[in-house]
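Run log // design_07
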C-alpha cells in the first residue's frame, strides 16, 4: 500500500507546503498551517477513464441557451443569479441556528414542482429529526429522499445508481472518505469531499448545494481552497436573537455578487421580506434626539435604516465607544472630523451607536446620518420631521456623493420622506417637486440644530 504523505495547508488561502511554516508566503497570515495526510491512491480511486470527454470548440457550447432552474424562493433565486444551473456547486455558510437547514428544506420543497427527485444527505440530523422540521413547515412529499450515510464512497455509488436532479449536503463537514486517514471535518477530508462532490455535479450535470459551518471569524470552516473549488459561495447572516436574515453572495460564477436576499425567520420557516425598508423603521413621522434616518445598500437594493446615538458624560478616565451594527473605527473617524472641522467637542464623553433592526452596515453612504445622530444626541435637539441624510464625510469635513445616489433618493421618496439632505448631485432637476437640500460640508449641519 502506498505510503501516506504529510502536507501542511494554510486554512486561510489554501497554500500547501511539505514543511510547516510560521507565516504563509501567499496570504501573509501567521500560524495558519495545519497538518494533514493524503494517500497517493486517493486521487485514483474515483478516476474512470471511460468518463473522459473530448474537447469542445467554444462556439459549439450552449452557454447562452442554458436554462436556469427556478427555485420558487425569489430572494434565493436573485442571489444565485436567477436560479440554479445544471452542474452548479453552491456552498452556503452561516452561524449555528441561523436557519441554513430550514432554508434548504424549503427550497427543496419548492423545487419538487420542477424536479423529479431530490437527494438530501443527512449528516447532522437523522431522517426523523428532519421529518419533524418538514412537518412543522408543512412539507410532505416522497420526491425528497433522505440519505442517512455520509461515507463518500457509498454515497457516490448510490448517486450513480439513481437519477437525482439535485443533491443537498447537510453538512460538508460531516462527509468523510475511508480512503483518507483523517477524521471528518479535517482539512484533508474537506478538500477530498468537496472535490468529489464537485466532480459528481459536473459529470452528472446536476446542481449540488453544500451547507458549511463557519468559524468564529465568520468564514466557512476549512481551507480557503474550498471556496475556490465551488461555483457559488453564499453566507446567511443575522443576529440569532432577532428574526431578520440576510443571504449574501461573495462568489458567483453564474451571476452577480452584488445581490442579497432578505428573510424573516418565523414559526412557519424562512419568509421573504418584500419591503425591507419598512421592516427597519417604526415611523418616519416621529422625531427623537439622537436619531436620524439614512439609506444603505444591501447588494443592489436600497434599504432605509434608523441610526440611534447616545452621547453622555464619561464616568471613567477613558471614554467608551460602543457600536452595534457599525464599525468602531468609522465612528472614531466621524467623531474626529466633527471635533477638528466642526468644533463639536464630542469625543471626551461616552458614545453609543446602534443600527436598529439588527442589520450590520459597512457603507460610507450612512456617514452623514451617523454624524447627524451624534450631533442631535450631543445637543439634545431633534431634526425636522421626515428628514433623511445621505453622503460620505471626508477627512476635510466635506460631504461626498456615494454610489447609487438616485436609487437611494427614490427609495426615500417612496416611503414619504420630505427633506432629503445629500451632497451636490447632477440630477437634482429631476426632483423639483421634492425638497432636496444640498449639504457641502459638516459646517452646514450645524444650522439644523
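design_07 sequence
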Amino acid at each position: 500500500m502506498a505510503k501516506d504523505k504529510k502536507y501542511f495547508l494554510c486554512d486561510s488561502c489554501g497554500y500547501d507546503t511539505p514543511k510547516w511554516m510560521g507565516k504563509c508566503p501567499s496570504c501573509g497570515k501567521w500560524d495558519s498551517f495545519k497538518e494533514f495526510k493524503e494517500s497517493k491512491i486517493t486521487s485514483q480511486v474515483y478516476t474512470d477513464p471511460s468518463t473522459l470527454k473530448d474537447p469542445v470548440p467554444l462556439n459549439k457550447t450552449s452557454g447562452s441557451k442554458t436554462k436556469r432552474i427556478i427555485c420558487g424562493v425569489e430572494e434565493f433565486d436573485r442571489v444565485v443569479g436567477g436560479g440554479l444551473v445544471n452542474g452548479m456547486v453552491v456552498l452556503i455558510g452561516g452561524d449555528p441556528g441561523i436557519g441554513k437547514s430550514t432554508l434548504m428544506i424549503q427550497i427543496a420543497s419548492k423545487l419538487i414542482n420542477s424536479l423529479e427527485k431530490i437527494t438530501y444527505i443527512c449528516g447532522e440530523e437523522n431522517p426523523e429529526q428532519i421529518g419533524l422540521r418538514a412537518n412543522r413547515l408543512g412539507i410532505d412529499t416522497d420526491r425528497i429522499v433522505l440519505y442517512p450515510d455520509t461515507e463518500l464512497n457509498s454515497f457516490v455509488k448510490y448517486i450513480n445508481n439513481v437519477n437525482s436532479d439535485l443533491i443537498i449536503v447537510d453538512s460538508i463537514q460531516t462527509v468523510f472518505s475511508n480512503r483518507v486517514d483523517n477524521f471528518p471535518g479535517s482539512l484533508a477530508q474537506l478538500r477530498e469531499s468537496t472535490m468529489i462532490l464537485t466532480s459528481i455535479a459536473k459529470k452528472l450535470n446536476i446542481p449540488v448545494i453544500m451547507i458549511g459551518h463557519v468559524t468564529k471569524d465568520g468564514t466557512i470552516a476549512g481551507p480557503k481552497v474550498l471556496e475556490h473549488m465551488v461555483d457559488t459561495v453564499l453566507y446567511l447572516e443575522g443576529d440569532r436573537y432577532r428574526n431578520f436574515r440576510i443571504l449574501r453572495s461573495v462568489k458567483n460564477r453564474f451571476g452577480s455578487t452584488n445581490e442579497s436576499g432578505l428573510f424573516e425567520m418565523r414559526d412557519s420557516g424562512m419568509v421573504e421580506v418584500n419591503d425591507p425598508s419598512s421592516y427597519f423603521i417604526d415611523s418616519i413621522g416621529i422625531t427623537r434626539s439622537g436619531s436620524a434616518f439614512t439609506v444603505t445598500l444591501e447588494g443592489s437594493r436600497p434599504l432605509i435604516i434608523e441610526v440611534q446615538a447616545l452621547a453622555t458624560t464619561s464616568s471613567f478616565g477613558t471614554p467608551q465607544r460602543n457600536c452595534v451594527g457599525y464599525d468602531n473605527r468609522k465612528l472614531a473617524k466621524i467623531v474626529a472630523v466633527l471635533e477638528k472641522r466642526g468644533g463639536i467637542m464630542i469625543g471626551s464623553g461616552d458614545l453609543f451607536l446602534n443600527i436598529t433592526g439588527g442589520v450590520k452596515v459597512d457603507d460610507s453612504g450612512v456617514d452623514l446620518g451617523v454624524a447627524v445622530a451624534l450631533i442631535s444626541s450631543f445637543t439634545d435637539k431633534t431634526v425636522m420631521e421626515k428628514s433623511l441624510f445621505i453622503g460620505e464625510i471626508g477627512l476635510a469635513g466635506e460631504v461626498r456623493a456615494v454610489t447609487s445616489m438616485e436609487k437611494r433618493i427614490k427609495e426615500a421618496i417612496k416611503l414619504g420622506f420630505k427633506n432629503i439632505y445629500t451632497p451636490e448631485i447632477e440630477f437634482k432637476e429631476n426632483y423639483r417637486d421634492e425638497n432636496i437640500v444640498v449639504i457641502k460640508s459638516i459646517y452646514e449641519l450645524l444650522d439644523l440644530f
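The chain has a mean pLDDT of 85.
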